[in-house]
Design goal:
The chain is 73% helix and 0% strand. The chain contains 4 helices and no strands.
Length: 143
């Protein structure tokens, strides 16, 4: 189960990297054109990356304390992700109701360019990852 959690975590990270790159390339970090606060974005990213490194070390060493540490780090990662999702949904809905305008597109929030499939897949694999990490930390399913 620990390897399955690692695989789902890496898939989740790939979707997250794609959205972060999109957000940065559309000017999200410059402020003013994003509904996602910079500290929330980078806090989510940093905690998830640290947790992934700890999980990799856990997979290599098998030390239970590392599994619990990774899970504890996933709790604020998940909360920050949920905050971003709730702030992204109105941006997505406005995209669906407002036709794209050539020059006005630069003024649109950076997260408006996130594909729904990437957001959904990222969230789904994140939930699966949290569950697998918790089950592994609890000692269920073996290594």
């Amino acid at each position: 189960m620990d390897i399955a959690a690692l695989v789902t975590w890496v898939i989740t990270a790939l979707g997250g990297f794609y959205m972060l790159a999109t957000w940065l390339s559309r000017g999200g970090a410059r402020g003013g054109n994003s509904h996602l606060p910079v500290p929330v974005i980078f806090g989510h990213f940093a905690l998830a990356a640290i947790g992934l490194v700890i999980w990799i070390i856990y997979v290599v060493t098998g030390k239970d304390a590392l599994a619990w540490t990774a899970f504890i780090l996933l709790v604020p990662v998940a909360l920050l992700g949920f905050v971003m999702l709730t702030r992204w949904i109105p941006v997505y809905r406005s995209r669906a109701t407002t036709p794209a305008v050539g020059a006005g597109d630069e003024a649109a929030p950076a997260e408006r360019h996130f594909p729904v499939a990437v957001v959904g897949t990222h969230g789904l694999f994140a939930v699966i990852t949290v569950v697998l990490v918790l089950l592994t930390a609890l000692g269920m399913g073996g290594s």
